[in-house]
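Exam revision sheet. Question 4 asks you to relate a sequence to its structure. Input first:
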Amino acid sequence: MEREDYMRLALAEAAACLDAGDVPVGCVVVDPAGEVIGAGRNRREARRDASAHAEIEAIRAACARLGSWRLTGCSLYVTLEPCPMCAGAILNARVAEVWYGAREEKTGCCGSVLNLFAEDFPCKAAVRGGLLEGESRALLQEFFRRRREI
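Answer key, structure tokens:
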């Protein structure tokens, strides 16, 4: 699979949020062999849980699948730039690389507000943004358009 294919899986997770009332954010974690080992979507409203972000769900699923909290060598694909909580979880899980779609100007921690990945933590993750950004942004715009109609 190509990087865009993994991001399309994350976009499918995000799209599932549209009718559930949660901001559409989706995420997948891929192991070094290219297998998807975790997936998640934003479920803060559905679960009434501030920590129910897509990245946290995907990381938890990947850790359970591997039987370890270390996701060394894994890649994470998420439709929206990670927030501080998710960036911290990514760093703590030792994810090797992060690919995100749309920038998050209000809370993004890959460079929009601050860049936690540029700090001097023991484990580093390579970060690249803008992967299928248009599709990621379109889902977000659709969600907020629907919200304004209510």
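Marking note for examiners. Strands lie at 26-30, 36-41, 75-80, 97-102, 126-129.
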